[in-house]
Design a protein that fits this description.
Blueprint: E1 3-7, E2 14-20, H1 30-40, H2 49-52, E3 58-61, E4 63-64, E5 67-68, E6 73-78, H3 86-89, H4 116-123, H5 129-135, H6 140-156, E7 160-168, E8 171-172, H7 183-187, H8 197-212, E9 219-226, H9 242-251, E10 256-261, E11 279-281, E12 291-293, E13 301-302, E14 305-306, E15 311-317, E16 328-330, E17 337-339, H10 350-373, H11 378-392
Helix pairs in contact: 1-6, 6-10, 9-10
Amino acid sequence: MLRFTTAGESHGPALVCIVEGVPAGLPLHREQIDAELARRQQGYGRGRRMQIEKDTIELLSGVRAGETLGSPIAMVVHNRDWKNWQEIMSAERLPDEAPGAARKRVVTRPRPGHADLSGMLKYDRTDGRDILERASARETTARVAAGAICKRLLDELGIRIGSHVVHLGGIDATVPEALPDDLNAVADRSPLRTLDGEAEARMIALIDETKRAGNTLGGICEVVCTGLPVGLGSHVSWDRKLDGRLAQALMSIHAVKGVEMGLGFGSARVPGSQVHDEIYRDPARTRTGRVARRTNRAGGLEGGITTGEPLVVRVAMKPIATLMRPLGTVELTTGGPASAVAERSDVTAVPAMGVIAEAMVAFVLAQAMLEKFGGDSLGELRSNLEGYLARIGTRLPG
């Protein structure tokens, strides 16, 4: 069973990630993971934290001589900003610190749109920092590290994942009829990871205007995965449907408020003849059982199972909830009205969200591949996949 877990606070000493279930023999180097972490830190509209942190991982276990061992892979990302937060975030009581005494930068004015207030009430905390440090999107650094390993595994099996921004702050990007073969190579050249240069210029102007107003912007990214075989996921039980598992993983990303597959909500607005994908025979399509769809409105999923067509998922992110011109809240020490605390923040993080979404999609798909094909080593996994593809290739007569 492929799984991962993360630990760490935004301004703590480090973030930690443990990935378990990766087959032995996967070529893996630190630089491959660091490259994904660097992609997460890019994007026009990011804040000062991205200038402070230069995220790189330290591999602690599970890899030897550039290959996975089949044992748990442990990674740590050290926070450079920790040196400025030790008094505030130290795990140990400081010298002469009285039990229960408030530390510097205590948060008693919870921010609307964050986990601050709900978390303080749920966990019985008087300082919102006990909640917001873990609830911070800084945690996604560790997710991207886990996703980088999953992407490496998928790449060895001929499966590629990329993303691009299709909407930001009310501005739509025109999506070309045919996406680039290497989607990320093209999207990453844009400061907003969009394929539409004209829309990019308008988005940048809007970000500048929004920053001056002390406000924030949301948007939508599209994640595309090619090379998947037909048959991942299952129709037999609700929790095995791959579209449901993808939606859960993507909705767990900070500030994500919507996920759609293929046409998504658009499929509710048109008749069935404009929704469903006709099937025809295509002997060259070995990963789809030698058939293909004339269109891909389903986004590569039917009945909770992959069809072998490109997987297409769109993910909507709300504007970041930390505003430089704070919204109204309650001062919890007095019960009176107040302005929310203003933590350091971005104007928008939609381009980075696309990279995080890639990581979560990669994890779910790698997990599904291992469930379907098994294997304690990469060689065994590849052999099982090849046997399956050979079998489904003989299903149609003639």
